[in-house]
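Dear colleagues,

As part of the handover before I leave the project, I'm documenting each prediction I ran so the next person doesn't have to rerun anything. This entry is a single chain, and its sequence is reproduced below.
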Amino acid sequence: MSDPFDLVRRLYAAVNRADLEGIVECYDERCDIEGVVPPGEGHGRGRAHVREAYARWLAGGRGALDGLYYQVRRVAGIETGWGWVRADWIAGWQALDGDVQRMAGYSDFLVEDALIRRHRTVASPLNTRETAAPPARPDQRRDYPARPIVGVGAVTFVDGRVVLIKRRYEPLAGQWSLPGGTLELGETLEAGVAREMREETGLLVEVGPVVEVFDRILLDERQQVRYHFVLIDYLCRARGGTLAAGSDVSDVALADPAQLASFDLTPKASAVIAQARRVAAEAR
């Protein structure tokens, strides 16, 4: 049985690729959409209406969020039934005449038989300052946690070189590693990777496939668990921004994967980079 969350993610991925057929395939023949295309406007029924509405919108402009139409911040279930899903997002669209519209909003989806039966969107204009501001980060204890903490990382190649950062704080303070950090409450894995890359390196990235999933447990001198992370590393592709050291980082570098010895990476980080190179080669 198809996961409704995955279906919603697939829809937004198709929109960001301007893949009209991929978009239409996500909807039921009898679907009902309200305020969807453009965000906050219009109403219609059926796949024919979906195709016409999206085709007109995509042909009239392009994505204005570093080439994307949507940046999805969260995909979550609504406790009114298994078929209901909510997505929170920022949308950006640049018309052919140069006019740019940015919206913040959410969409509710009723999924039946692995297709979208209802899709309702609520949106409002978003100013530039709000667009640039990162989401609030909840206070979460990293050392001696009550339970494992989920972390995300990014392996990003720029002209064949991999992006590395030097950690400012523990764990691994003063050491070179891959960019990444802890996932925030209500944040999707992909959104967390993109946020950490933006905050730590200044780069805007497209998050690709998972490279590696593993845990990292560090004990103190009393053999008690000081850190316990479950880490998911993704292959990413830079889409914009300027490489610069950001939060939690004292330095950034572009490293030749064949000359990583001088960065004294952990064996696991080196292995993840090697695996990411294989994943990237297979995706070509």
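Residues 128-139 have pLDDT under 50 and may be disordered. The helical segments are 4-16, 20-24, 47-59, 128-132, 189-201, 267-283.

All the best with the project,
I.
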